[in-house]
Design brief:
There is one protein chain. The chain has about 230 residues and is α/β, with parallel strands linked by helices. It folds into two domains: about 1-190, Rossmann fold (3-Layer(aba) Sandwich); about 195-228, no CATH class. The chain contains eight helices and twelve strands. The chain has helices at about 30-45, 60-65, 70, 85-95, 120-140, 155-160, 200-205, 210-215; strands at about 1-5, 10-15, 20-25, 45-55, 75-80, 100-105, 145-150, 165-170, 175-180, 185, 185-190, 195. Strands 5-4-6-7-3-8-9-10 form an eight-stranded mixed sheet, with helices on both faces. Strands 1-2 form a two-stranded antiparallel ribbon. The protein has a two-stranded antiparallel ribbon with strand order 11-12. Helix 5 packs parallel to helix 6 (about 155-160). It starts with a strand and ends in a 14-residue tail after the last helix.
């Protein structure tokens, strides 16, 4: 599951598999989404649909981070400014999706459904409908669907319960750290160098006691060292 991003060679990113994947970002407009989304678009053949919320899809950021303009030409972008607009846009995307669709990206999926102008008795059914439709189209056409959320409430739990894979992301001095059941960022790439972590070397070499046992030496103690 670990690979060097094709869209951003200085990023080590998890693979977004077919089905629903949740990326829990440190803030609503985190560029961690842009890194993972552009990499997913590059890996997946076909058109990418981006249903934006909270103006996450900054044109400047996408142009700065995309490896080439050809990649951006594959993205079909629509913005929803209310929960009702977002709901209708998702419905249109679901109708247009096909086996030739590469991926669907929905940053801040639940965000607009939290707005005060959306009663709770409408917000939850609409979000449930969106999640059900996305899950169905992902299964039927084997599409990668990447959604993000930066909150921690009942709507977040609704999203988390419906996805197949989830990653948490946090900002570090060396870059973004992604963690999931099958992935953890263990190396950070920068211009001209790379920074490793202890888990990286554990994965590569194992731990000292395991190595000693494998060689038939056993654990090192004062007795085996000839100590008193």
């Amino acid at each position: 599951m670990n690979h060097i991003s094709q869209a951003n060679p200085d990023a080590n990113l998890p693979d977004v598999e077919r089905g629903l994947t949740l990326l829990e970002t440190p803030d609503p407009r985190s560029t961690a989404l842009h890194q993972l989304a552009l990499d997913t678009v590059q890996q997946a053949d076909g058109v990418a649909y981006w249903v934006d919320a909270r103006n996450t899809s900054s044109s400047y950021t996408l142009h700065e981070m995309a490896p080439h303009r050809r990649l951006l030409r594959r993205i079909r972008l629509a913005r929803g400014f209310t929960a009702y607009q977002h709901f209708q846009i998702v419905r249109r995307v679901i109708k247009q999706a096909s086996a030739r669709t590469g991926c669907i990206i929905l940053p801040n999926l639940a965000s607009l459904y939290r707005d005060e102008d959306v009663p709770a008795h409408e917000a939850e059914p609409m979000l449930t409908g969106v999640l059900s439709a996305l899950a169905e189209v992902a299964e039927v056409y084997e599409i990668r669907v990447l959604v993000t959320d930066a909150a921690d409430d009942a709507l977040t739990e609704m999203v988390a319960e419906r996805v197949e894979t989830a990653y948490e992301c946090e900002r570090t001095p060396m870059g973004y750290r992604f963690v999931g059941d099958d992935y953890e960022t263990t190396v950070y790439w920068a211009d001209g160098y790379w920074q490793t972590t202890i888990p990286y070397w554990v994965d590569l070499l194992g731990v000292a006691e395991e190595q000693a046992d494998t060689a038939g030496i056993g654990p090192i103690t004062p007795a085996t060292m000839g100590g008193a």
